[in-house]
Every structure is written in structure tokens, then in C-alpha cells.
Write a structure and sequence with these properties.
251 residues, mainly alpha, 2 domains, 9 helices, globular, binds zinc ion
């Protein structure tokens, strides 16, 4: 069992390393396959031994081997996030095939969190294949849930589409596709993801207005809130859903 968690940690860190490449290159329209990674300052190709998740950052002291250009702290942070979330998923979902959809969802959410935060987009090239794979994988593992998953994706998508049409400039089409994907993975627990995202969005929005004065009108991307909400729903969806429902007198 310890080996299982060590394996998940290592795989999670490696996926995190791959997600770093996606997070940097996808919004810039660059290939995630070639060319290999280079130092942005001196253009030196990064060798495999300087590209080992978490470890390389530590033994390079967070600097390029040749020119000393600082490497962003976000690289090891994303790798550690992948490692920790993969281990947590193994603890929650066990070592069977049921672990695959959560691992895919976690990977997609990490990439979307950081890309949307910086670029205000939820790339189609991530969300479309992940939605399709999520639906396929989850139904393969839990065939009896097909109607629930489809309904959760369709209803969430319709709700967000309505929001996007009513108030243009708020939700984007990327958010609509993202919540469809979340419904496909989470089923009815998607309610927890959406509720949490709106709650967090409101809290952070108020905090930013308070901190920056009333003139601050900068729009917040919604994807990161959805990503955090979806992680919460993934791990604690069922008990939280019961709580929310009982709050509204429906439980
Ligand atoms: Zn360099």
C-alpha cells in the first residue's frame, strides 16, 4: 500500500511537470510535444536530469544551470500539487479502475486553474477532450450512472449558457463547456462544485473591491473558482450535497 502511494506521488509529480508545459504553451498556441524545454533567458535546452519534477528545482537552487536565470516557483508548486492530489485521490478512490476518472479530472483542473487565472481562457483543446473522456470513462466504471451524468452535464451547461447570454462579459463559453465536463465527471455532486465556485467568487470579489477601492472593476476569471469547487465536490461531494439540500429544507 505504501508503494501504491509512492507511485501515485511520483506519477502525480510527473503529470504536474507535463501540466507546466501545457499551462505555458497551450495559451500561446505552441506545441506541447516539440521542441523540448529551453531556458527562456539563454535558450539552453533543458537536459532530462535538470527536468526531474521537484528534485531538479531543488538541486538547481531555482536557477538556470548556465545563466542563473530564476526558474518560477510555480513550476515545483504545480508538480507538488499534482503529486499531493494524486495521492489523495488514491486514498479516496482506491487502486481500481475507478481511480482513472478522478486522476484525469484533477489533471485537467490544475491546467485550467492556472491558464484561466493568467489568460482568462478555458482552452477548447483541454476542455472538449476531457469532457468526452470524462463521460466515457465514468460510464465505463459506473455504467448505472449514465443518465445522472448526462443530466448533470446538460443542466449545468444550460444554466451557465443562460448566465452567459443574460450577462455578457460575465461567464464565457469556456465556463459553459467546463461545467458540462464537470457534470460528466461529478454527476449530481456538480451542484456542490457550482455552489462553492459562486461562494468563493463572491468572497474573493468582495475582498478585491475592499482591498482595491470601488474603482476596481477588473473582471475575475471564473474557471479557477470552478476548479476549486470541483475538487471539493470530487472529494466531499456526497456529504456536502446532503448538507446543502438539508439547508434548503429539501433533505
Ligand atoms: Zn538560462
Amino acid at each position: 500500500m505504501v508503494l501504491f502511494y509512492i507511485l501515485l506521488f511520483v506519477v502525480g509529480a510527473a503529470i504536474g511537470s507535463f501540466l507546466n508545459v501545457c499551462i505555458y504553451r497551450l495559451p500561446r498556441g505552441e506545441s506541447i510535444v516539440a521542441p523540448g524545454s529551453r531556458c527562456p533567458a539563454c535558450d539552453m535546452p533543458i537536459r532530462w536530469y535538470d527536468n526531474i519534477p521537484l528534485l531538479s528545482f531543488a538541486w538547481l537552487g531555482g536557477k538556470c544551470r548556465r545563466c542563473g536565470h530564476p526558474i518560477s516557483i510555480w513550476y515545483p508548486v504545480v508538480e507538488l500539487l499534482g503529486a499531493v492530489l494524486f495521492v489523495l485521490a488514491g486514498w479516496k478512490f482506491g487502486s481500481g479502475a475507478g481511480l482513472l476518472p478522478p486522476l484525469l479530472l484533477i489533471s485537467a483542473l490544475i491546467a485550467i486553474f492556472f491558464i484561466d487565472l493568467e489568460h482568462y481562457i478555458v482552452p477548447n483543446v483541454i476542455v472538449m477532450p476531457v469532457a468526452a473522456a470524462g463521460l466515457g470513462l465514468t460510464i465505463a466504471v459506473q455504467p448505472h450512472r449514465w443518465a445522472e451524468l448526462l443530466a448533470a452535464g446538460a443542466v449545468s451547461g444550460a444554466f451557465f449558457l443562460a448566465l452567459a447570454l443574460i450577462k455578457p462579459g460575465g461567464m464565457g463559453m469556456g465556463d459553459v463547456k467546463l461545467v458540462v465536463a464537470l457534470g460528466f465527471f461529478l454527476g449530481k455532486a456538480v451542484v456542490v462544485a457550482l455552489f462553492t465556485a459562486f461562494l468563493l467568487g463572491a468572497l474573493v470579489g468582495v475582498a478585491m473591491i475592499t482591498a482595491g477601492g470601488k474603482s476596481r472593476k477588473s473582471r475575475l476569471p471564473f474557471g479557477p473558482f470552478l476548479a476549486v469547487g470541483a475538487l471539493l465536490a470530487l472529494f466531499y461531494g456526497a456529504p456536502l450535497l446532503d448538507k446543502y439540500l438539508s439547508l434548503f429544507g429539501a433533505g
